[in-house]
């Protein structure tokens, strides 16, 4: 992975050397300039100087990715041991059982995910301090057993010291390649506009430079996919290893239902995001995305659930998959035949002191990362009121309890399914 950027630098040096060689060894083109008219002299000058300008611009744009700023990550919120004593005690005990180091920081965000990573970025390669990120919408839709399995999986990554370091370097390099290929800035737009606005002969030089830049990005694209192929294999192996920690804590059956639940939560979150987009067009935003996600989950039909199950069972793991397919993960755990050593009734939300307030806080953080200064506090509306208004509209418009919402409503939702017990929703 480290060799790939070095290879890219070597190619930059090679392109620079070709430009230098042309500039210093092809001046003989002017030896036959005597006796030529102005138009012919201009043509000779263009033939000589065009590769120099185009090559220099190509080298400049190939170097530009090394100085491109890193994109800002989504906002997270750190929890304190004093504010969430039960959650921290739960995490401490799980780390002890799994055999991993404890995170130095626990953060929450508004994603349907949990993640393990270095607490101090690249400095974590040396100090080894780890951070656990918990998606609040994830916790809102899981039983305590399922949530314990998800956390055990992340703590399994905590035990992969060498793997985490190598994967961090590999993923950082791949992200750099991706930004270099797809991220356009004012330089790119300025070159495009200048090439179109100049005289055809001068513009041709810049178009030639654009071709060189395009070729360099195609080269980056190739290197990125080579790196991604290696990185994906490593990450899949790390996932299988972390799955074992999870399966040996909660057992094979709960492990299987946990991953099915994840698929359903992702679908529900997407449905909630559709509702957020619809409301935003009307100048409002729901103040509790996790609650809206659970409302979408509660109204998921049996047909949708069956489609999600079929998709999980038919999923396959590709060469560029960073995570194994659902079917492969479950088969690997069933082969291990783990027996559950943890089992408690209840929902993951019970681990948090004030889950409703926390949900509203991470929702605000999420909107701030999306809209920045454009976000006004008075845009926020209570999800409870929006849900009540939607239920009232459905009750008036529906001729049966299962009629779908009509088109054009502010909060379009899917038909109601009364089978709440199967989903295990935390009311």
Short description:
This protein is mainly α.
Mean pLDDT: 83
Strand percentage: 5-15%
What are the secondary-structure elements, in order, as H or E?
HHEHEEHEHHHHHEHHHHEHH
Domains counted in the coordinates: how many? 2
Span between termini: 47 Å
The largest sheet has its strands arranged as: 1-2-4-3
List keywords for this structure.
single chain, 427 residues, four-stranded mixed beta sheet, two-stranded parallel ribbon, 15 helices
Care to describe what's here?
- This protein has helices at 3-25, 38-63, 85-98, 124-127, 136-140, 144-158, 161-182, 186-197, 200-281, 289-298, 302-314, 326-336, 355-371, 383-397, 420-423, and strands spanning 77-78, 105-109, 114-118, 130-135, 285-286, 380-381.
- By secondary structure, the protein is mainly alpha-helical.
- The chain folds into two domains: 3-71 and 171-224, no CATH class; 77-167 and 232-276 and 300-370, no CATH class.
- α1 runs antiparallel to α2 (38-63) and α9 crosses α12 (326-336).
- The protein is elongated and about 95 Å long.
- It starts with a helix and ends with a helix.
- Mean pLDDT is 83; it is low at 404-427.
């Amino acid at each position: 992975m480290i060799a790939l950027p070095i290879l890219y630098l070597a190619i930059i040096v090679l392109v620079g050397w070709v430009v230098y060689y042309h500039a210093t060894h092809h001046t003989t083109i002017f030896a036959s300039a005597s006796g030529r008219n102005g138009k012919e002299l201009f043509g000779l000058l263009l033939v000589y100087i065009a590769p120099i300008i185009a090559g220099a611009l190509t080298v400049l744009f190939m170097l530009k990715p090394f100085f491109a700023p890193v994109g800002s990550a989504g906002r997270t919120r750190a929890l304190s041991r004093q504010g969430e004593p039960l959650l921290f005690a739960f995490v401490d005990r799980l780390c002890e059982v799994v055999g991993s180091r404890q995170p130095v920081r626990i953060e929450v965000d508004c994603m349907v995910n949990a993640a393990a990573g270095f607490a101090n970025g690249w400095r974590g390669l040396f100090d080894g301090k780890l951070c656990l990120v918990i998606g609040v919408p994830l916790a809102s839709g899981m039983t305590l057993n399922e949530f314990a399995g998800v956390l055990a999986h992340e703590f399994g990554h905590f035990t992969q010291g060498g793997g985490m370091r190598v994967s961090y370097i590999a993923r950082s390099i791949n992200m750099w390649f991706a930004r270099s290929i797809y991220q356009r800035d004012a330089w790119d737009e300025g070159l495009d506009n200048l090439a179109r606005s100049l005289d055809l002969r001068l513009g041709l030089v810049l178009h030639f430079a654009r071709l060189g830049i395009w070729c360099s990005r195609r080269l980056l694209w190739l290197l990125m996919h080579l790196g991604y192929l290696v990185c994906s294999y490593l990450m899949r192996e790390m996932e299988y290893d972390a799955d074992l920690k999870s399966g040996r804590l909660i057992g094979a059956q709960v492990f299987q239902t946990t991953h099915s639940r994840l698929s359903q939560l992702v679908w529900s979150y997407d449905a909630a995001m559709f509702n957020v987009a619809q409301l935003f067009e009307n100048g409002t935003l729901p103040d509790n995305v996790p609650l809206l996600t659970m409302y979408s989950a509660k109204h998921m039909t049996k047909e949708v659930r069956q489609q999600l199950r079929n998709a999980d069972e038919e999923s396959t793991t590709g060469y560029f998959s960073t995570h194994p397919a659902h079917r492969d993960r479950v088969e690997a755990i069933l082969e291990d035949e783990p027996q559950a050593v943890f089992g408690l009734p209840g929902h993951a939300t019970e681990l948090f002191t004030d889950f409703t307030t926390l949900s509203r806080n991470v929702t605000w953080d999420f909107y701030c990362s999306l809209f920045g200064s454009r976000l006004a506090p008075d845009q926020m509306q209570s999800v409870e009121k929006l849900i009540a208004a939607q239920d009232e509209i459905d009750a008036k418009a529906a001729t049966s309890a299962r009629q779908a919402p009509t088109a054009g409503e502010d909060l379009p939702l899917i038909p109601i399914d009364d089978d709440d017990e199967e989903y295990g929703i935390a009311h």
